[in-house]
Design a protein that fits this description.
This protein is α/β, with parallel strands linked by helices. It has helices spanning 7-13, 21-28, 32-44, 60-65, 68-85, 87-93, 106-111, 115-121, 123-136, 144-147, 177-185, 199-204, 242-250, 277-290, 297-305, and strands at residues 18-20, 48-52, 55-58, 166-171, 192-197, 213-216, 230-234, 262-270, 295-296, 309-316, 322-329. The chain binds S-adenosylmethionine. InterPro entries: COMT-like (IPR016461), COMT_C (IPR001077), SAM-dependent_MTases_sf (IPR029063), WH-like_DNA-bd_sf (IPR036388), WH_DNA-bd_sf (IPR036390).
């Protein structure tokens, strides 16, 4: 309500980011009594500070909450909350996992279709989802090219050039935030930058990012871009159960040049023991949304080896249990 009514936005926009309930009521055209009650809750949650009686100041959280990505995330919860609210009903319908049906997810139990289908039918929610994906990884330490050491030594001498040469394909890349950032840092490098996602994601893009080719591509069909230097997947495999991950990989391996191409998986990579709370929650989220999981390195090894690939290095993010897995065509495939 605070975001939708523009109350937090008005606070952030006010002089010194400080305002009284009366000023916020005027700015948001909301009854002052409602502002006071909502702000009481917001301050108790540390979303902003109450300096004096009914006088408020924005803090770091307020500023974060009014960003488009966080607004998108809160609106996106319209789709998610009914799923979590019905989780127990779903689990009970599967006898708490004892009745195996790999096509069942709590999401489909509630919405009667997959999440990708819901997003296809609701362009507004597709946009909210993409904004949220972008927001989640906007921080410097999460940028893949900062965490992947090979990027530091990329140079025109070691890369292919010419009209067919492709430097990076961001597969299932949504709005391609990582690709856009990488391109900004590497304008001197040869090769094209290609962003692929479902047609509705491509259609939701208001303006294609400069210098990026945006193409609709279903990753369950053969990869059309051959011999790229990098095929990059961020937060893609965690949406799919093992057999579907194998299918995605099977469609990309023939496009890889064993001498040149690297496949990068940027996702949670859980430790074998004592996983952090955040990773454990993300894993359960994947379970009820997609019947998939966050995985350990061992689990990823098992998956990639089924299609003749091998993990050659792992680069942890450092800030949480996410990492980049560097994957190549196995030498003795
Ligand atoms: C969790 S999002 C991650 C998006 C992006 N990589 C990021 O990290 O911001 C997964 C993405 O996979 C895309 N996707 C789902 N099914 C797909 C398919 N069959 N082919 C291509 N992309 C697909 C979704 O549209 C979505 O953008």
């Amino acid at each position: 309500m605070l975001v939708e009514l523009g109350i937090l936005g008005a606070l952030v926009a006010s002089k010194d980011q400080t305002a009284s309930s009366q000023q916020l009521a005027e700015a948001s055209k909301c009854e002052e009594g409602v502002v006071v009650r909502l702000m009481r809750l917001a301050c108790s949650l540390c979303f902003c500070d109450e300096l004096d009686e009914q006088t408020y100041r924005a803090n770091e959280l307020t500023i974060m909450l009014v960003r488009p990505g966080w607004q998108g995330a809160m609106r996106w919860m319209d789709i998610i909350y009914p799923v979590t609210a019905n989780l127990r009903g779903f689990l009970s319908s599967t006898d708490f996992g004892r009745v195996p049906d790999p096509s069942d997810t709590a999401f489909e139990y509630v919405h009667k279709k997959t999440m990708w289908r819901v997003l296809e039918e609701k362009p507004d929610q597709r946009r909210n989802f993409d904004l949220w994906m972008h927001e989640r990884k906007r921080h410097e330490e999460t940028l893949w090219h900062r965490r992947y050491p090979a990027c530091a030594s990329l140079s025109p001498d070691t890369l292919r050039s010419g009209p067919d040469a492709v430097l990076m394909v961001d597969v299932g890349g949504a709005n391609g935030s990582q690709l856009v950032n990488f391109r900004k840092q590497t304008p001197h490098l040869p090769g094209r930058y290609v962003l692929q996602d479902l047609p509705e994601s491509v259609a939701a893009m208001v303006q294609p990012p400069e210098g990026i080719e945006v193409v609709a591509h279903d990753f369950f069909t053969p990869q059309p871009v051959k011999g790229a230097r990098f095929y990059y997947f961020r937060n893609v495999f965690h949406n799919w159960p093992d057999h579907k991950c194998v299918e995605i990989l099977r469609n990309i391996v023939p496009a890889m040049d064993p001498e040149y191409s690297t496949l990068l998986i940027d996702d949670y990579v859980l430790p074998d023991k004592n996983a952090q709370l955040r990773s454990a929650i993300a894993d359960i989220h994947m379970m009820y949304m997609f019947n998939s999981s966050e995985r350990t390195e061992r689990q990823y090894k098992e998956i990639v080896s089924q299609v003749g690939l091998e993990i050659v290095a792992v680069y942890p993010a450092g800030v949480n249990e996410e990492a980049i897995l560097e994957v190549r065509v196995a030498v003795n495939k």
